[in-house]
Specification:
Layout: H1 2-14, H2 26-43, H3 48-73, H4 83-92, H5 100-116, H6 121-124, H7 129-158
């Protein structure tokens, strides 16, 4: 009985309240949920230290949750696990100024990188376990963040 409850709870967390079981575009839905979290976090005054600490803690916990969920679902990187998209998007918008342009650009760019998996991102899926589940999404988030920062820098230089 206790194992079934723990198994259900882990899958509940990894699938973001079972949203990952939606039959169409579960990864995009996971990213939309992260966008909602970003909207909320934009209203909360957190120092860079606390935002970073919370994000790193969520990623570390996410590795364990995704690892266990993958074991419970008996499938490598099952599509129901969308916690990776959620955390990847939070990395994408880490310390990015909150405005409509950044919201749209970060969402579209992150989804593009997560779906197409260019560069080395696709190879990261070969890593096993929870780290492998998160690695490609975290890389897509880091690249998204860097592109957004570069575009902001170029915009300032052009002005």
């Amino acid at each position: 009985m206790g194992f079934k409850i723990a198994r259900s709870f882990i899958i509940y967390l990894a699938s973001l309240s079972f949203v990952g079981y939606f039959p169409f575009f579960p990864g995009t839905l996971g990213t939309l949920l992260a966008l909602l979290a970003y909207l909320y976090l934009s209203k909360v005054t957190l120092s860079v230290f606390w935002y970073g600490l919370i994000l790193v803690s969520l990623i570390l916990i996410g590795v364990l949750i995704c690892h266990l969920a993958e074991k419970f679902l008996s499938e490598k990187d099952p599509p129901q696990i969308i916690l990776d998209e959620f955390l990847g998007y939070l990395v994408a918008v880490f310390l990015i100024p909150f405005d409509l342009r950044n919201i749209v650009a970060s969402f579209l760019l992150f989804r593009f990188l997560d779906i197409s998996k260019p560069f080395f991102i696709k190879k990261l899926q070969n890593i096993s376990g929870g780290i492998g589940i998160l690695a490609d999404d975290l890389a897509a988030g880091i690249i998204t963040n860097l592109i957004l920062r570069l575009s902001q820098l170029l915009e300032k230089l052009i002005k």
